[in-house]
Amino acid sequence: MAAVTRSSFSLFRLLLGQQYRHRCFRLQNFRSDKILLTCRWDRNLQNPRTLKTTTASLGPVVQFKLSDIGEGIMEVTVKEWYVKEGDRVSQFDSICEVQSDKASVTITSRYDGVIRKLYYDADATALVGKPLVDIETESGSGECPAVKPGLPRSLLMSRCPVEVIQEEDVVETPAMAHEEHTHQEIKGHKTQATPAVRRLAMENNIKLSEVVGTGKDGRILKEDILNFLAKQTGAILPPTPVQEIQTPDPVPTASPAARPTSTAVVARALPSIPKPVFTAKDVTEPLKGFHKAMVRTMTAALKIPHFGYCDEVDLTRLVVLRSELKPVAESRGVRLSFMPFFIKAASLGLLHFPILNASLDEGCHNITYKASHNIGLAMDTSQGLLVPNVKNVQLLSIFQIAEELNRLQALGSAGQLGTSDLTGGTFTLSNIGSIGGTYAKPVILPPEVAIGALGKIQVLPRFDADGHVIRSHIMNVSWSADHRIIDGATMCRFSNLWRDYLENPASMVLDLK
Questions:
Q1: Cβ contact 401:159 at 8 Å
Q2: Per-residue confidence (pLDDT) for residue 324, from 0 to 100
Q3: Could you tell me if 80 and 269 are in contact, meaning their C-beta atoms sit under 8 angstroms apart?
Q4: E-strand spans in 257-398?
Q5: Alpha helices in 54-186 (DSSP H)
Q6: Which helix (H) or strand (E) holds 290?
Q7: 498 or 152, greater pLDDT
Q8: Band of the pLDDT at 228, cuts 50, 70, 90?
Q9: Range ranked top by mean pLDDT from 56-60, 165-169, 189-193, 484-488
């Protein structure tokens, strides 16, 4: 009986020892992404030592906050996330794109780390001063004495809380803005480059979106910047065709014998028409972004008594001049439309009638005459009506205006116009004729005091000085002015001067600086 008892006790000790060793083996090989457990046991199984736990490189979590982006904006719409929770990001990587009622803004990372939390869904409204995203940085370590063997990972993480740091307001970047060359991208495509390469691009006034990267995954290298500098010609992305006022092609006069005998007719490309959308029920959605800004601006415009004035302009000579200059501009990488001539002629007219380049305060007590001619161009984009402006037109040549229009039209098509492009306007032209129509009734954009709408260019019969009927390129223009400070005679005289510059484009040479 005693022998059986000793044999059973020995067997029990053996089984118990195997169980302890099995547990120790499991603990030594238990690893998670952030927790490493190590256990030490005495060879005497009856005296296990204390369990020691160690945390491995748990970095602090930085909480990004959306900063005040100026212009009194308190909220933005998150248009698109470029990352998701768990993604690893590096400095200067794009995190998301947000849109205010002024411009689209790209948020970029200031740290190397892992995205731990996104506070908003796409198309949600983010508030200024509130967290936007949490990033776990790659630094920090510590001891966690609270961990016990056998705990699940979620409980282990709760026992070892990660430090959360309230960061200063995140720096936002107006997409493709003049002042920012280190955070540029075309929507949905990141521009990858090291800080040294970005600094080199900024010092040489190069936009990274225009440089083709030859590194891994399209990364822009130093050699790419140097090669771009070597062959730089100032070329800018071409504008969208709809932004240009189209001129009817002149009909060549040919003898009947020279006319083709084929009955085939060359079909003209029809404009693309969006497909109709049928819904089974009514849909209500809140006003956001540019639409919300348009409501506010047009509501303010209702307070302005509009004075309207319309006229027609014979652009026959300008059509000939532009056809001669267009190949020269294209050889320099710039597409030349009629708008640079219209804008420059308006600037020359504003020099004679500065009241049209002024603003009136809300109390109607003071008039401010603007020194700069920041002439806006109304654009029809996928995001709605946008009015970027060309800064300091009074100091620019027609070719320089064309360059700037190319840039603005490319950014408008991509939805990447920055705040600096959309603010500060002093006078506006709307080329509604690029879509259709002859006359319009443009609405003034406060705090401006005048606006012009340009109709489509038509080939119409007109009489020359000898009474003969000739083909003429005619464009209608419609002006609106703030009748509180601008009388009808002033608007009429300005329109006549503007028309004279365009009907006799050589006369502009006398006043160009």
A1: no
A2: 95
A3: no
A4: 306-314, 358-360, 367-369, 375-381, 384-386, 389-390
A5: 153-159
A6: helix 289-301
A7: 498
A8: confident
A9: 484-488
H helices present in 99-242, as ranges: 153-159, 195-203, 222-230
DSSP class of 257: G
Structure tokens at 101: 């009622």
Assigned token pair, 482: 């703030």
| Among the listed residues 364, 312, 321, the one whose alpha carbon sits nearest the alpha carbon of residue 344 | 321
Q: Which two tokens stand for residue 432?
A: 């509604």
- What value, to the nearest 5°, has the Cα angle with vertex 23 and ends 18 and 26? 125
CB of 448 within 8 A of CB of 471?
no
d(Cα 156, Cα 54) in Å, to the nearest integer? 11
Helix (H) or strand (E) holding 330: helix 316-331
Tokens of 221: 């290298």
Q: What is the C-alpha to C-alpha distance for residues 416 and 413, in angstroms, rounded to an integer?
A: 8
Give CA–CA dist 109/95, Å, rounded. 6
How many residues appear in the chain? 513
Task: Give, in degrees to the nearest 5, the angle at Cα 386 between 396 and 278.
Answer: 150
CA angle 346, 351, 396 (to 5 degrees): 65
Residue with tokens 């014979």: 314
First to last CA, the chain: 121
Q: Range with the lowest mean pLDDT among 25-39, 123-137, 182-196, 338-352?
A: 25-39
Give the distance, in angstroms, between the CA of residue 281 and the centroid of all CA atoms in the same chain.
33
- What tens digit of pLDDT does each residue of 22-59 get? 444 443 444 444 433 333 444 444 444 444 444 445 57
**How far is CA 198 from each of CA 64, 93, 125, 354, 434, rounded to the nearest angstrom?**
23, 12, 31, 42, 38
The structure tokens 């409501």 sit at 295
Give the highest mean pLDDT range of 31-45, 90-104, 194-208.
Answer: 90-104
- State the residue for tokens 């500060």: 424
Dihedral angle of Cα 151, 153, 157, 158, to the nearest 10 degrees: -50
Q: Is 92 helix (H, G, I), strand (E, B) or coil?
A: coil
Cis before 447 (ω within 30):
yes
Residue showing tokens 């029990």: 12
Single out the catalytic residue among 178, 291, 306, 483: 483
User: Which amino acid makes up residue 447?
Assistant: P
Among candidate residues 65, 63, 69, 64, the one with its CA nearest the CA of residue 105: 69
The one-letter code for the residue type at 434 is S
**Known catalytic residue at 483:** yes
Q: Which one, of 410, 357, 372, 412, lies nearest residue 388 by Cα?
A: 412
Write the DSSP symbol of residue 268.
Answer: P
Task: Summarize pLDDT for 102-129 with one digit per residue, the tens.
Answer: 667 778 777 788 888 899 988 888 888 8
Specify the pairing of strand 469-482 against strand 306-314: antiparallel
